[in-house]
Amino acid sequence: MSRRRNNHRSPFQRIGIVAKVASRDAVHTAHELAEWLRRRGLTAALDEATLRARGIQGETPFLPSEPWDLVVVLGGDGTLLAAARTLAPGVPILGVNLGNLGFLTEINRGELYPALVEVLEGRFSTEERSLFDVELRRQSGAPSRFRVLNDAVITKSALARIIELTLQVDGHLIARFRSDGLIISTPTGSTAYNLSAGGPIVNPLLPVAVLTPICPHALSMRPIVVPDDAPIEVTLETRREEVYLTLDGQEGAAMSFGDTVSITRSRATVRLAKVSGRRFYESLRAKLRWGGLAGETEAPSGGESGGDPS
Known about the structure:
Elements lengths: L1 E3 L9 E6 L4 H15 L4 E4 L1 H7 L15 E6 L1 H8 L7 E6 L9 E2 L3 H9 L3 E14 L6 E5 L2 E6 L6 E7 L2 E8 L1 E5 L7 H4 L11 E7 L9 E4 L4 E5 L6 E5 L3 E5 L4 E15 L5 H8 L23
Parallel strand pairs: 2-3, 2-4, 4-5, 5-6, 5-18
Antiparallel strand pairs: 1-7, 7-8, 7-18, 9-12, 9-16, 10-11, 10-15, 12-13, 13-14, 15-18, 16-17
């Protein structure tokens, strides 16, 4: 974790803004935020989808491939996942939760402008989150490559029967098993599909991968945590069934008999800007409603409407 401070000129001059276009509140907030930043002499750009949603033409859009000092994501974890996979390495992301749960987003709507004042003055920390590089090697055809922040999931379609998979880690056979599928999760993704499927919650800073079978045929086949520096390979051993590889729940590709999914830790990472002072365990208590110390409270993840501190 690192901390940057600047008591004079803001270290951030070019700021990209990404909004969940399905949310009217997120789109409106993105436009309001861009104007707030521009009034302070900063360059602010909205992503193309948000510009279309606002009916704005002729304005230069935010393009992830270009150099940016900061990216603000307005929506939920899904919006942040989509943005994180396409950003250039090293760009800090400030996630603003306008959804329901939000493990990745750092602040709620009511904290937006006070938090940005802190960030723009350099009073924040960054947390590095690991990414996985995923390669789908087909028996026929060119391989497909992806990058994930949460997980890669191999699963059968709704009408397909149970499937058989061979799992290897670092070249060693772990198991050949039958199930509805397999979740290969990053530490960050342990609180996503992995958690719903009965997998363990792990601290997002640990250098591990979590392998969680989905409804395995043998009850002895349980989730396993492995070092993320060991290559993971999963081969589909079932013929004539519809099977898919899904990446972060947002991208996908069909798989056929003999296809292999290879997962390795990426050299790239995601940098999340941290300003709230909340730690991972505090988020777990609040968002999973585990309870805490007497009198301890936290604002609902949806937040309240925050004022512009002009």
